[in-house]
Design brief:
12 strands, CBS-domain, alpha/beta, five-stranded parallel beta sheet
């Protein structure tokens, strides 16, 4: 069965032509919303397509065709567009919706296996699914056809996402919860700033540097030059490596690790966590043009749910 469904998607991919671009043009220029509809199993697929469109920057929602005939046609405005799914293309529950679309010149995009069906005839753009057998042994239960329809809906959503220039920032706005929202948090949302930064000048004595490190609880202190840029860091590890009777009589510049790992404020928190894991460190200074503007601890990422 899985091979049949894979064959269906491959055949669908090979069959796409100018209708795909035409459908994108229609949907990208819709001033209202994209209405996705279907009955039965096609309805379940339609709900998922609507959800994917909405979550990737194309306002969309599902309208049940049966409810549409009993008042929910009022949910569809003249500035909208409709994507209708029906394997046969002759689902009677959709007919009132087709008539409504034609009456008010609402663009209608069909996804169907019925090349000679009512839906393919009335649609402005009709995607005809390839004639690949259903995975069901009786050839009846919608399996291959629904997989192809779902894949086509995903392709439309992703193509619209790319055309709109939908960014990770936009994605985070629409996905604030769960693992996706966590992974899209930026360093600027998590970092410590201002008086929380452990900093000391490069000519500071190590006694002062250790006090700054201890006061801020990050296990390190940033060493800044006269121009205000970050020259290096002194960490707990540096203290252990240079431990001697003369340690506190030396300057921070003598002890610091030069060219430390840093990160941009607009970088993703997941990127910062990956860098800290790669370097086996627990804190990162955040810099702009070489100037320290914040500091991020690995625990800040973990508390935010970044993994």
């Amino acid at each position: 069965m899985l091979k049949l469904e894979a064959d269906g998607i491959n055949a669908l991919s090979a069959s796409l032509d100018g209708r795909f671009t035409a459908a994108l043009d229609v949907l990208a220029n819709v001033k209202g919303r994209v209405i996705v509809t279907g009955m039965g199993k096609s309805g379940h697929v339609a709900r998922k397509i609507a959800a994917t469109l909405a979550s990737t920057g194309t306002p969309a929602y599902f309208v049940h065709p049966g409810e549409a005939s009993h008042g929910d046609l009022g949910m569809i405005a003249r500035d909208d567009a409709i994507i209708a799914l029906s394997n046969s293309g002759n689902t009677r529950e959709l007919y009132d919706l087709f008539e409504y679309a034609k009456r008010f010149a609402i663009p209608l995009i069909a996804i169907t296996s019925g090349a000679d069906s009512t839906m393919s005839d009335v649609a402005d753009i009709a995607f005809i699914l390839p004639p690949i057998p259903e995975g069901c042994p009786m050839g009846l239960a919608p399996t291959t056809s629904t997989t192809m329809a779902l894949a086509l809906g995903d392709a439309i959503a992703v193509a619209l996402l790319e055309r709109r220039g939908f960014s990770t920032t936009d994605f985070r706005v629409l996905h604030p919860g769960g693992q996706i929202g966590s992974s899209l948090q930026r360093v600027s949302d998590l970092m410590h700033t201002g008086d929380e930064l452990p900093l000391a000048p490069e000519d500071a004595g190590m006694s002062d540097a250790v006090l700054a490190m201890t006061a801020k609880h990050f296990g390190c202190v940033g060493i800044i030059g006269q121009d205000g840029t970050l020259k290096g860091v002194v960490t707990d590890g540096d203290l252990r490596r240079h431990m001697s009777d003369s340690l506190l009589s030396r300057t921070a510049a003598e002890i610091m690790t030069v060219n430390p790992a840093t990160i941009r404020a607009q970088a993703l928190g997941a990127e910062a966590l990956s860098l800290m894991n790669e370097r086996a460190i627990t804190s990162l200074f955040v810099t702009e043009d070489g100037h320290p503007v914040g500091i991020l601890h690995i625990h800040d990422c973990l508390r935010a749910g970044i993994r």
